[in-house]
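Structure in, sequence out. Go:
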């Protein structure tokens, strides 16, 4: 058996394209519909109630595309709006739980760092998930609000001095915490792996939530006979002008892309309409 409907992926902006990149790598035969809510980015500084409202609207749009699964490729939604999954008629994945499982498996000392948006860090979602698996673990977290604009400006080279200095300041409390594993708790952050690794050194394992999520999704689809064996098509939607989509997509997906991107009015897709 198989299920040829597409996988739906959404994010507050374009950071979730790193999840699409990982899905393409681990599930090349799957069709994917991506929605980036670029008209209301960022979610990471919003109230929890607003994030939940936006998540429901994003999910409603993806359901209109006849998806077989929805992935919240957003650390903020995954941290404070994961409960919207209870309202969905399709399976739901977020990026916190897979990353926490990968970190718990990787750490040798039980000392794990977490980077994320202010809302993600304040929610302590990663800490709760890790402590459920490793009750004696020590979690050291810090928010990194400047990382997203740096990525979207394309300042992602490990040799970029501006990005390196910003990373050093954000990562200082993480280094002081003597962690051996570090979760990149926002889907933009994998684009800065080189810089973060340069600051943290060789002794720290970096956990990419995009890869952790893609491998979990692959396992679920396989176990539930939901794999698509004849796909590989992709549709991209945004809620604001798509002018800079290709530039940012190239940064986040690591390849030169000229993508067909459509703009949608997200207010037409309110849950229950």
């Amino acid at each position: 058996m198989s299920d040829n409907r597409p996988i739906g992926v959404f994010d507050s902006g374009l950071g979730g394209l790193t999840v699409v990149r990982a899905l393409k790598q681990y599930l090349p035969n799957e069709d994917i519909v991506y929605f980036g809510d670029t008209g209301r980015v960022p979610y990471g500084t919003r109230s929890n109630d607003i994030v939940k409202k936006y998540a429901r609207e994003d999910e409603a749009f993806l359901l209109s595309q006849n998806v077989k699964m929805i992935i919240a490729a957003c650390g903020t939604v995954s941290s404070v709006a994961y409960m919207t999954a209870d309202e969905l008629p399709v399976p739901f994945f977020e990026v916190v739980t897979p990353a926490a499982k990968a970190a718990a498996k990787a750490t040798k000392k039980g000392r794990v760092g977490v980077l994320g948006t202010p809302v993600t860090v304040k929610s302590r979602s990663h800490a709760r998930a890790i402590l459920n698996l490793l009750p004696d673990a020590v979690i050291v977290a810090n928010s990194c609000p400047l990382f997203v604009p740096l990525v979207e400006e394309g300042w992602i080279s490990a040799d970029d001095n501006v990005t390196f200095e910003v990373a050093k300041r954000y990562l200082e409390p993480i280094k002081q915490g003597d962690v051996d594993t570090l979760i990149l708790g926002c889907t933009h952050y994998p684009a800065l792996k080189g810089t973060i690794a340069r600051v943290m050194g060789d002794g720290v394992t970096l956990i990419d939530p995009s890869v952790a999520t893609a491998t979990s999704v692959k396992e679920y689809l396989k176990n539930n006979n939901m794999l698509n064996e004849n796909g590989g098509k992709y549709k991209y939607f945004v809620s604001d002008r798509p002018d800079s989509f290709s530039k940012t997509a190239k940064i986040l997906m690591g390849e030169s892309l000229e993508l067909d991107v459509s703009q949608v009015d997200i207010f037409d897709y309110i849950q229950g309409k």
